[in-house]
Design a protein that fits this description.
The protein is α+β, with helices and mostly antiparallel strands. Helices cover 32% and strands 13% of the residues. 0% of the residues are buried. Pfam families: DUF1233 (PF06806).
């Protein structure tokens, strides 16, 4: 969150729905055999580009 401003669950949802493994992110592990719960490395340039393409927030009246 400190780098992108996205919350943990937003990143998880984006990985599941919007991002392609191997492009925006990649699972890595010490033994060379990554699995679903392994740590992820992110392509910051593509993630930042994805954030810029998101629609602007709409102000709602209360």
């Amino acid at each position: 969150m400190a780098i992108t401003g996205l919350k943990k669950n937003t990143i998880k949802y984006a990985r599941d729905i919007s991002w392609m493994e191997g492009r925006e992110y990649k699972h890595v592990s010490g033994n060379g055999i990554p699995h679903e719960t392994a740590a992820c490395f992110y392509n910051r340039e593509l993630v930042d580009e994805w954030i810029q393409k998101m629609p602007k927030a709409i102000r709602r009246e209360r």
